[in-house]
Write a structure and sequence with these properties.
Mean pLDDT: 84
CATH topology of the largest domain: Growth Hormone, Chain: A
CATH architecture of the largest domain: Up-down Bundle
Largest sheet: none
CATH superfamily of the largest domain: MFS general substrate transporter like domains
Shape: globular
Low-confidence stretches: 1-9, 196-210
Number of strands: 0
Number of helices: 17
Distance between the termini: 46 Å
Length: 406
Amino acid sequence: MQSREKSPDHYSKRWIYVVLGILINLCLGTIYSWSVFRRPIEEVLDLTATQSGLPYMFFLFFYAVTMPLAGKYIDKYSPRWIAAAGGIMVSAGWFFAGLAGNIYTLTLTYGIIGGMGVGVVYGVPISVAGRWYPDQKGTVMGLTLLGFGLSPFLTAPAARSLIENVGVMMTFRYLGLAFLFIIILLSLPLKNPRLARAARGDQDIKNRSGAKTWVDILKSVRFFSLWFCYLIGTFAGLMAIGITSPVGEEMINLPGETAALTLSLFAVFNGVGRPLYGWITDRFSPHRAAILSYILILIASILMLGAEEGSIILFIISFSLLWLNLGGWLAIAPAATGSIFGSDNYSRNYGLVFTAYGVGALLGTAVSGSIRDLMGSYINSFYVLIILSLLGIAAAWLFLKERSIE
């Protein structure tokens, strides 16, 4: 009798889990369309630029903190129920944000509840797809995450249209209800393979590296160097994403609808950044990929310093590079984590490194908003990026070069 492991049926349709992951991530990645909501929220709730960044900042922070905490439950419980539970939280965050009457309620609902929901769901489709493709995990995970980066391509113009027709608060509610049905429906087919094939693939990789406790990892200089480099990359990218639409409207004088449409273009660069930098990292090493990223961030920042009203080309080139490199760091950091610390306890190790994403979200949003409020323009944010890019180049060159696994 033919075993299920060899049955063509068992793995012939596994591609569906990658497709489901892409579609789920398209919903989760709507956070990258936040800049479309920012000015309407400022007008409705009478907020400063610093205040309007709080929901976005808290969303990204709680997403980053919750993701590694939720990871251990994916193996313990059915992935479909973990994803569905997270989908309910995402939906509740968006829907109740539409009922918020002040920035504090909006931050609690959209920022904390919605962010935690994304943190719960985020790891599920990645884990499931990786188990169905034990020998192609890097490629498959990159494809699954493509949906998160490409999300603004669809969601930014859709959200802008809704805001113009029904208002920003009703838009939150409509999207919340949509996410409830879409995420739960897409979660139901998710399941891990029943056979030991995926587990054996993981074990083969695991046996090639030495185990280390989280205390050992935190004592490593290279951990803090990678964490710092990831912080800089996410600081630049998440700051850029949060201010894209306001910069387009205020500095370049683009109409609101046009500024929202540019997010669709930038989303393509963000999505492409993941597989592109994944290939660069595999081909040329993590530290070279990191240095290239910082050089491009440096170029983008210098270009924006020369931008003025009507400088549409400079704006598009600069923000395309910034969005590209955020996607790039979501490929560089996990690859560098495996390269430096090995595959044993990889999820835990990358969870520790991933906290840099949350801190980058907090600092990037707070710094750009404060600069806008204190100086009247976002332009000075790019001086900060120039300094950080130079520090990043030095850190990557000194501490991320290939060595034996610590």
